[in-house]
Backbone:
């Protein structure tokens, strides 16, 4: 009982068919996108993920150069060290 009330409260009848399930009408894509992009929690999570991905990408791009100049390593050894570090970070981050 509570679940049906909550579903009706959250969706307010937009994008639902008569049985209460999602509708399959392609004309409702605009309404669905409007609901999605006006959800502040969704927008903040997407923005945070984008910023995080940008930071990781920049870190991955410049880490070999930082290692090369900071620790006076050759470019090949700094690339190998950076690959090892980034592999470990990705394993810890995503697992």
Residues:
């Amino acid at each position: 009982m509570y679940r049906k009330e909550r579903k009706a409260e959250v969706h307010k009848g937009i994008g639902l068919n008569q049985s209460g399930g999602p509708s399959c009408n392609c004309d409702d894509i605009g309404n669905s996108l409007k609901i999605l992009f006006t959800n502040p929690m969704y927008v903040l999570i997407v923005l945070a993920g984008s910023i995080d991905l940008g930071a990781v990408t920049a870190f991955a791009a410049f880490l070999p150069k930082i290692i090369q100049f900071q620790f006076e390593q050759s470019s090949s050894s700094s690339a190998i060290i950076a690959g090892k570090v980034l592999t470990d970070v990705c394993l810890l981050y995503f697992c």
